[in-house]
Write a structure and sequence with these properties.
Immunoglobulin-like; signal; three-stranded antiparallel β-sheet; mainly beta
Length: about 170
């Protein structure tokens, strides 16, 4: 009988223990959370589409010629700079002593609040400002670029060249 009483007591303890474990208090609501974050990287692209060929008139000073189109796209405000490998000199490809000076004119971009202006290069491979992006410079911006040539009088016939680089960077 004592054994049977122990078995009943043990069985009752298991039933009561299970009931306590399954009671609403045993399943109290808990919650946990975490911060959800994301990052959209800054996107800046610049593309210069040059004219196929720029025809220079000999024996003339201060010619302004169409040079190409500049496209800049960004999802943040930006600044733009430009540099010339030859410090604003077009060099004859066969005779680098023959040069034609030039300035770069970047046409007005109304939505940037900037006016047309000329970039005069003084030193080679030195960045010179083209645009201060301001607050309205996100999206796609397209503008014309011209060359204002110096004196071409008595210059040797042939092809002249310089490398320019436009750089866009976030403000």
């Amino acid at each position: 009988m004592f054994t049977k009483f122990n078995q009943v007591l043990l069985a009752s303890g298991l039933v009561i223990g299970s009931a306590v474990m399954l009671s609403p208090a045993a399943f109290a609501q808990t919650s946990d959370g975490g911060e959800v974050t994301g990052n959209i990287a800054a996107v800046q692209t610049v593309d210069f589409i040059p004219q196929v060929s720029v025809a220079v008139t000999a024996n003339l000073a201060n010619q302004t010629l169409p040079f190409g189109t500049l496209e800049a796209e960004s999802n943040v405000t930006w600044d733009m700079e430009v540099k010339s490998a030859n410090a604003g000199l077009l060099e004859h490809i066969d005779d680098p002593t023959q040069t034609i000076s030039y300035e770069l004119e970047v046409a007005q971009v109304t939505d940037l609040g900037t006016s047309a202006g000329f970039v005069t290069f003084i030193n080679p491979n030195t960045d010179y400002p083209v645009y201060d992006g301001g607050t309205n410079s996100t999206g796609l911006t397209t503008t014309n670029v011209n060359l204002k040539l110096g004196n071409t009088t008595s210059k040797k016939a042939g092809n002249y060249t310089d490398n320019i680089t436009f750089t866009i960077s976030p403000q």
